[in-house]
Specification:
With 322 residues, the chain is an alpha+beta fold. The chain contains twelve helices and nine strands. Helix 2 packs across helix 3, helix 3 crosses helix 5 and helix 6 runs antiparallel to helix 7. The longest helix has 21 residues.
């Protein structure tokens, strides 16, 4: 009996050692730098290099890897820290701003497909929630210097129909897509009427010029004042206005007319300054003015060239007009 007991103990010890030898400690999830796409050396043209980067910016980030390789927590997404991830979203949006709008929109759509496919394949990832939040903030927040409704449109359209989107948020994204669809790049801007300082009712389309800067402003608004000063100091802008090639249509869309009339003398005399006497721009949201100031650049046919764009980008675009 003692021999049998000894054999049993030896067998148990052997099995325990064998099990121990087979156990493998799971490595801790790792952090990493954002994996940049590399432009092939064969592409030397600057425009083509920009297009390549915009199209392939996220390829390396979304490459499938074994489970638990990259750290995913409140401050990391696929191993990349929040600050670095946001910086690269900003870089990506910058690349998009340097290529044609239609091409950039296709790239945004491709990015959403990559993101959605990656998240569906790895449901434990936090990539979808993190990147959706960043893209929405960069492209649609009215205070973002990178805001661009034309680029946000293909993204929010996909959000409105994606199975990964919170059902409670789908109507919100559908509504945002509807608003972003108005006055899109390359389409005729919505016409409207306004009453000028002399009491005459004018329409946007009655203002004839090679280029029109549509400026929604409020009296006493510090940011509006800054834009006015920047336009007045720009020699090319003032020359174009003087030559009649550029018209500035400056419209007040709120209802405090006494305050507006008291301030109206501060606007340049060679601008088309007035107020929306019907209050339709604000109420029917034909321009989706989410914040004041708001700038649009239009061509001679009143087609939209820039929509609710940051001041620096608008003035730079005007300075490049000849």
């Amino acid at each position: 009996m003692k021999g049998i007991r000894l054999i049993s103990l030896l067998a148990a010890a052997f099995l325990s050692a064998a099990c121990g030898s087979k156990s493998v400690r799971t490595p801790a999830p790792q952090t990493r730098q954002f994996p940049m796409a590399l432009v092939p050396t064969a592409i030397s043209d600057d425009a083509m290099r920009l297009s390549y980067m915009a199209d392939h910016y996220w390829d390396e980030f979304f490459k499938p890897v074994p489970e638990n390789v990259w750290l995913r927590d409140s401050t990391h997404t696929e191993g990349v820290g929040d600050e670095e991830l946001e910086q690269n979203v900003g870089n990506y949006v910058t690349f998009l701003s340097y290529i044609p709008v239609s091409e950039a929109q296709n790239d945004v759509d491709r990015f959403f497909t990559q993101l959605e496919t990656f998240q569906k394949a790895d449901t434990a990832s936090n990539a979808f929630s993190k990147l959706v939040s960043l893209i929405c903030r960069y492209l649609y927040d009215p205070n973002s210097p990178a805001r661009n409704e034309d680029l946000y449109l293909p993204f929010v359209k996909r959000l409105a129909t994606s199975s990964l989107t919170d059902p409670a948020m789908r109507p919100v994204y559908e509504y945002e897509a509807k608003l972003c669809s108005m006055n899109r790049y390359g389409t005729p801007a919505a016409d409207f009427t306004f009453t000028d300082l002399a009491g005459r009712v004018r329409s946007l389309y009655s203002v004839k010029a090679e280029w029109t800067l549509l400026f929604f402003s409020n009296p006493g608004c510090p940011s509006c004042r800054h834009i006015i000063e920047a336009l007045e100091k720009d020699a090319h802008v003032t020359e174009m206005i003087s030559d009649g090639r550029l018209a500035v249509v400056n419209v007040y869309i709120d209802q405090d007319l006494p305050e507006w009339k008291a301030y109206a003398g501060n606007y340049p005399a060679d601008w088309y300054t007035g107020y929306d006497q019907s209050y339709k721009i604000r109420t029917d949201q034909s321009y989706n003015v989410r914040a004041i100031p708001s700038l649009y650049l239009l061509d001679s046919e009143k087609r939209v060239l820039m929509k609710d764009a940051p001041e620096e980008k608008v003035i730079a675009a005007i300075d490049n007009l000849h």
